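Let us work through a complete example step by step.
Step 1: write down the sequence.
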Amino acid sequence: MFDLTLTEEQEALIKTARDFARSEIAPVAGHLDEEGKFPQEILTKAFQTGLLNFEVPEAYGGLGLSCLTHSLILEEIAWACCGVNTTLAANMLGAMPLIIAGNEAQKKKYLSSLTAGKNGEPVFCAYACSEPDAGSDVAGMRTKVEKKGDGYVLNGQKRWITNGGVATWFTTFGTFDPKLKHKGITAFVVDAASPGVKIGKKENKMGQRASMTSDIVYEDVFVPKENLIGEEGAGFKVAMKTFDRSRPWIAAGAAGIIKRSLDECRAYSLERKAFGVPIAQHQAVQFMLAEMAIAYETTRLLCMKASWMVDQGKLDSIVSAYAKAYGADAAMRVTTDAVQIFGGYGYTKEYPVEKLMRDAKLLQIYEGTSQIQRMVIAKNLLSQEK
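Step 2: predict the structure and record it as tokens.
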């Protein structure tokens, strides 16, 4: 039964994340955004506080948290800065193919490296799937895989890879033959220090600027056979199962952004006066605040249901697509209204709402655009039996 009651452990973890977000992240979020700076110091503190690698199983040193608990924590982080939130989530995104389809040796080596860290500093990984001409169309990827000796050789380019410039290893995908589409795609784990791996420049993004996004180029990169994830030709399924697991996290980020927008607008509307009264007394503003509150409750509930279904093992559910599509679109709508409520001030960097608006836009793009989510939903609806 779907139950909204949280355990004492969940409440404690949420409080830890909330306190960390408000004390460590929120005060410097504007500076990180302005400078486009990767928040290494904050991420080190997060790692030492236990706010990283949430769903890595306990057998490999992780907390082994449920998707639901993970999502509730990410909401708190996103309230302070969605760029930091994306960085934390990206580590789990990179780890997820191994959790889903990796063998025991791979999990011990790579997942344990994340939880152990190095000299008290976090170790990062990345999920390298998207390409210059294959973002939402995963089956259209062109990174070439060839067998060579006791392993494989990769040649190709990955684009828009979060944590790409700081990762020590990647879970990545290539195809034996682009003509085979999804049937030729195979998953691997690649060490970033492997000869032939080159990291592109850090992208200068519109929003979520604290997260590190870059290209990864493979030039005759040898990957030993033991780094094959699952079976040859099964990579597309691994990629899709990973997205099914991760889409609730995007909805969690949306919930955090929406809640921050509502909090900022509520406080501002009670202080700002127009026509002799606080603007909170004007019905036009009240309606926008009400819509924000509705959007927050709806996004959070969809996120919780999608996360809960993941925890029940229902990875083929379209609820994750519901949560991602609705949450991303709602966050964009709410942050646009937040800028409107703040008026001219909202268009400046003096207040955080313009950053919230820029950060929200990416939610509609990464891990499957809002349009792709609708295609996924429609395909599922049309394939159902009467």
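Step 3: interpret the result. The mean pLDDT is 95.
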